[in-house]
Specification:
The complex is a heterodimer of chains A (91) and B (616). Chain A is of the alpha+beta class and 91 residues long. In chain A, strand 3 and strand 4 form a beta hairpin. In chain B, strand 16 and strand 17 form a beta hairpin. Chain B folds into three domains: 210 residues, Aldehyde Ferredoxin Oxidoreductase,  A, domain 1, CATH 3.60.9.10; 191 residues, Aldehyde Ferredoxin Oxidoreductase Protein, subunit A, domain 2, CATH 1.10.569; 168 residues, Aldehyde Ferredoxin Oxidoreductase Protein, subunit A, domain 3. Classes of the chains: A alpha+beta (91), B alpha+beta (616). The interface between A and B is medium-sized, with 24 and 43 residues.
């Protein structure tokens, strides 16, 4: 059992009404963690992050501060953090 | 000219009071578009060449002397209704007092469009007046007027007084505040009260010329070359900008400060003068917090559908301010995170003072942060500070330091020199987080390598918007690249720098490039100005502009030795966060970059200049 923190930002923070939640996961699997978060935040959350094959490319998803695209091993450990942003930019 | 341009360039000499005008040269316009590109070409051909023919070395040009030339520049799509974000203009100078390189800054608001409506695409300002003056341009009538009664006024009051005097519905004022008058080396030019041509100290150039303001007003309307194509294009682009999640909802809803959290989460938000890149408290000053607690409404630039501008207020307390605008991401970072001040109300107030007094927020915050580190390392003796308690995280000292800088009061006189000169003065030049003397913006390149290469090679010095690789490295626009690898970043930086040169010559807002690219710009130029550019032509023009600017810099003595980063970023591994252990592998990226650019020793070769059809 590992505990993983999920941080939400911008419109996602408004939509789900929370800045962060902690999820307990059996396997530390990314998909499992998001699905468990969906049980708390609602089904929409799962669709906001995952696709059938993997994760949505039009979200910015960081695992321990690294973009998910460049994380080789998606096995999560105790105290790991997932940060999720909608598309955003500035300058 | 078929469309887009008004067709006229204005030359005002403040030494002898002469006013001349010339038509826009279609040949130059086709090669350099307008805005930054056109201005650079004229600065080189007309001024630098003439100085050199008289035996004056470009290295001897005093940025604060009458020999410096200041240019207000618009381009063919500035002020064209319906074009995405057409409300910007560019300011150039032969030399920046802060960097000694070419002076360059960009601003939104209404000034750009209204300058065209007043009758001119470009305004070149030569010489220096003996007493304070302002230039008034109304429907093609140009006057140099006495500004002795305005000298000393802040930028807001100056703007309101001059607007009231002209009383035309399309009136805009670009002016300096006390900081520019006092030649603070990073003083900016403020227009429409809260919009800033912020960087490289062009407000000090205005101050040195005793030029308080430029006022423009008028009813000229630029024409469009191909009306049918233009209508089609405008409709298509408006739809695309609306559907794009960044330009259609992210920027309008949260403004630019939305970046605070994501840049912090990747470990690249410089904290306390770049000692680290992660701040556990950053959310206190984020775009989300700004929107939920202080935002009143949005204020768009002229004709812009994005409307990222913030109108904010602090209702109670010591930093109360009932109407202000911003702060933008860069300002929140520089005045807040970089100084360790986590009180957003103090940051809003410091930002307000910067606007009111005419100071660049990035250089101001960074210079204060440098002073704070110097002080905490006991390199600044207590007595030098004259009561200013410059410890990291002190909100009162932050706000106090801003006005002291503008008026050069006490220690403010030293802050007014910028971080490079300040750190050198106290024997620790390595603590200035600047490149070519320009303070770096809000992304630590140890966490995004490409932006480090861009900082090192940006012509105006430590600048993010010259080649905003963050779009790709962090935000995934147009496609995601790994921020922690130097591989492929040379090409990325070059593409961004070249395209941005086009945007600054169009003149258009860089934020449009979150949706539209070089191909779209070709279509816009063709429809509006009657060109027949391809996507490749547009990128070639961008490369030409970037190389001309580089060549001009080489005349001032700049070369590869100046294309570097502060030692902290090259030698001190990031101490914590996702980029822990990383430094910037600059050498490897630079080598590849110079090869791609066709530069030797950081300077374009004669062959490269010929290939780009740059006539010397």
């Amino acid at each position: 059992m590992v505990r993983v923190k999920i941080l939400l930002f911008a419109t996602l923070r408004d939509k789900y009404g929370v800045r962060e939640i902690e999820i307990e996961s059996e396997r530390g699997d990314f998909r499992e963690v998001i699905e468990k978060a969906g049980e708390v935040l609602g089904r929409d959350f799962i669709d906001d992050v995952l696709t059938n094959e993997g994760f949505r490319n039009d979200r910015i998803i960081l695992v321990n501060g690294r973009h998910i695209q460049f994380v080789k091993d998606l096995k999560l450990g105790e105290g790991d953090t997932i940060a999720i942003f909608p598309p955003l930019a500035g300058g | 000219m078929k469309g887009g341009y008004i067709g006229k360039t204005l030359f005002v000499n403040l030494t002898d009071g002469t006013i001349r005008e010339e038509p826009i040269d279609p040949g130059i316009a086709e090669k350099y578009i307008g805005g930054k590109g056109y201005a650079l070409y004229v600065l080189y051909r007309r001024y630098l060449k003439e100085y050199m023919s008289k035996g004056v070395s470009p290295r001897d040009i005093d940025p604060l002397g009458p020999e410096n030339v200041l240019v207000f520049a618009t381009g063919p799509i500035t002020g064209i209704v319906g074009i995405p974000s057409p409300g910007r203009y560019h300011v150039m100078a032969l030399r920046s007092p802060l960097t000694g390189s070419v002076g360059s800054a960009n601003s939104g608001g209404e000034f750009g469009p209204f300058m065209k409506f007043a009758g001119y695409d470009m305004i070149f300002i030569e010489g220096a007046a003996e007493k304070p003056v302002y230039i008034e341009i109304v429907n093609g009538h140009v006057d140099i007027r006495n500004a002795e009664d305005l000298w000393g006024l802040n930028t807001f009051t100056t703007t309101r007084v001059l607007r009231e005097r002209v009383r035309h519905r399309n009136t805009s004022v670009a002016c300096i505040g006390p900081a520019g008058e006092n030649k603070v080396l990073f003083a900016n030019i403020m227009n429409d009260e809260h919009r800033a041509a912020g960087r490289t100290g062009l407000g000090a150039v205005m101050g040195s010329k005793k030029l308080k303001a430029v006022v423009v007003a008028g009813d000229h309307q630029p024409q469009v070359a191909n009306v049918e194509e233009y209508r089609k294009l405008v409709a298509e682009m408006a739809e695309r900008m609306r559907k794009n999640p960044v330009t259609g909802s992210g920027l309008p809803q949260y403004g630019t400060a939305i970046l605070v959290n994501i840049i912090n989460q990747i470990g690249g938000l410089p904290y306390k003068n770049w000692q680290t890149g992660y701040n556990p408290e950053a959310d206190k000053i984020s775009g989300e917090t700004l929107a939920s607690k202080y935002l009143i409404k949005r204020r768009p630039c002229w004709g812009c559908q994005i409307a990222c501008g913030r109108v904010t207020r602090v209702q109670f307390g010591p930093y109360q301010i009932l109407y202000t605008e911003g702060p933008e991401y860069e300002s929140v970072w520089a005045l807040g995170n970089d100084t360790g001040v986590m009180d957003l109300e103090a940051v809003i107030k410091a930002n307000h003072f910067c606007d009111e007094l005419g100071i660049d927020t990035i250089s101001m915050g960074s210079t204060i942060a440098t002073a704070m580190e110097l002080y905490e390392r006991k390199l600044i003796p207590e007595e030098d500070l004259e009561g200013l308690d410059l410890r990291f995280g002190n909100p009162a000292a932050l706000v106090e330091a801003v006005w002291r800088t503008a008026y050069k009061a006490g220690f403010g006189a030293k802050l007014a020199l910028g971080s490079k000169r300040l750190a050198e003065m106290y024997g620790a030049p390595e603590l200035s987080m600047s490149v070519k003397g320009l303070e770096l913006p809000a992304y630590d390149p140890r966490a995004a390598k490409g932006i480090g290469l861009n900082y090192a090679t940006a012509n105006r010095g430590g600048c993010h918007v010259s080649g905003y690789t963050i779009a790709s490295e962090v935000l995934g626009i147009p496609e995601k690249t790994d921020p922690l690898t130097p591989t492929g970043k040379a090409k990325l930086a070059k593409i961004f720098q070249d395209l941005t040169s086009v945007v600054n010559s169009a003149v258009n807002c860089l934020f449009t490039t979150f949706e539209i690219g070089a191909r779209d710009y070709a279509r816009l130029f063709n429809a509006v100005a009657g060109y027949s550019f391809t996507e490749e032509d547009v990128m070639r023009i961008g490369e030409r502009i970037y190389n001309l600017e580089r060549y001009i810099m080489s005349l001032y003595g700049f070369s590869a030795k100046d294309d570097t980063l502060p030692p902290r970023l090259l030698k001190e591994p990031m101490p914590e966060g996702p980029a822990k252990g990383h430094v910037v592998e600059l050498d490897v990226m630079l080598k590849e970059y110079y090869e791609l650019r066709g530069w030797v020793n950081g300077i374009p070769t004669p062959e490269k200049l010929r290939e780009l059809r740059i006539e010397l």
